[in-house]
């Protein structure tokens, strides 16, 4: 999904595509993304186009107005008063947006998956295996220290996208954060292997509607139910740690950073309103 989102961002930033253009042609982006994994038939492409059109209309009419209202609320917040309780509340709200979208898309994904041939299933599994192999090849040679440095750079880049340049205090908080993180790459590599087995089993029974529907919903909406005990423990620890340090970093924001965040939020609101108006 990162590639698809990256393509959308690149289109806006470098080519000058409008938000309306992207939203009206999002079926093309989805098909292009999926064909990185499997060659689609004309019938499947048409089903995807129809499904995305229906999903986009619902998303534009029902969900995006929620995002606009949420952004308006975020624009009024005082970073210095931000609390851990508020952080968890915001995370639940954002998670609900994802859950709503996945639940709405789930029935169409099931119908399209049921039409996959055995050859397409093999092709999909091969593509997933190759991507997992690249992930493994990237991280297995790295020491814990190198992985922590990678964590630091990724988080720093993400924060600076929203806040602008970080202060010395915020960088110190970030260093403390990454030093306390539990490295989970080995567990994630094992998890990828486990999920390939689950996915292969699921696709082998794609015509068994009751089984597929039940298992696919769990995979889509409750992915942590497939985690190993060790990954669950480390993931819960890291989530609690990230919440605490993110709150501290937000509370340490400067007036300039606050303006930067609000400017970013206003840009996102403008894009959301463009999508609503494009109907």
TrEMBL record:
PROSITE patterns: PROKAR_LIPOPROTEIN. It comes from the Bacteria. This is Lipoprotein. It comes from Vibrio xiamenensis.
